[in-house]
Amino acid sequence: MTNTVTQVHLQKPARPCADFPKSQPLRKTRIVKKLATFVAGLLVSVTAYASGGGDLLQSGTDLSDRASLQRGAQLYMNYCSGCHSLKYLRYSRMAEDLGLTEDEVMNNLNFTGAKFGEQIQVNLTAEHANQWFGKMPPDLSLITRVRGSDWVYTYLNQFYLDETRPLGWNNKLFPNASMPNPLWELQGLQHAEYGEKDKATGERPVHGLKVEQAGKLDEAGFRTATRDITAFLEYAGEPAALKRQSLGVWVILFLALFTFLAYLLKTEYWRDVEH
């Protein structure tokens, strides 16, 4: 007996302790933690990509404000449509949604000679775009859906003069942007206020912006103008949003009426039921 007991104590385990299966609750907890960490990291990455860095200004756009959308359309066509198309929006659809006549659109908002039912394109050729900007300016139909309205609004407000850039302009939100400030005559000439030089990169970060030469609009007027442009681009990204908003009111009223009728029906059914 003694020898047998000794033999059992001296026997090595058939498999290392690390090979024994772990408890299921612990394993599930670790899996959940890993998934949560992955999702959190993904959300942070997407947010950082969409924002382009920096603090965003609140655009305060209102798609129910038709006057704002009309002003935004006029500003966009006058200052942006020379380079940036809206290929997913037609002149006819814009006129219908914004309460404009065909003559108003064709005489005041169409500078390419396109027909009323055609998409909003540009006359800028790829050859000229490569010579002037190094590439073809992007279509802006979906810019607010990709970047967000606050990003677009902030971007339009944060151009500043920078002699080190090929076109003489830079942007605080999107450094080294490859386009000049299209609204400079409205905003004026804005200069950057730099902080102390970063020891690691050797660069001086932009801490603030200041208009040193006034434009046609004061600060409040320019903010309104860029808000209108942003609202128009938000509409262009999803024209159906206007009809969906107006339809939503009727849907809510219908649901409220249906709920009231359902309550009356329930009361009638249960009236004769003994409790």
From TrEMBL:
Where primarily located?
A: membrane
In its UniProt record, a GO molecular function of this protein is: electron transfer activity
- Which compartments is it annotated to reside in? Membrane
**Cofactor note as given:** Binds 1 heme c group covalently per subunit.
Q: Which residues cross the membrane?
A: 247-265
* Pfam families membership: Cytochrom_C1
UniProt keyword NADP, yes or no:
no
Question: What is the superkingdom listed in this entry's lineage?
Answer: Bacteria
Which cofactors does the annotated protein need, by name? heme c
Alphabetical UniProt keywords: Heme, Iron, Membrane, Metal-binding, Transmembrane, Transmembrane helix
Annotated heme c binding lies at: C80, C83, H84
What Gene Ontology cellular component terms go with this record? Answer: membrane
Asked if the record carries the keyword Metal-binding, the reply is yes
Name of protein: Cytochrome c1
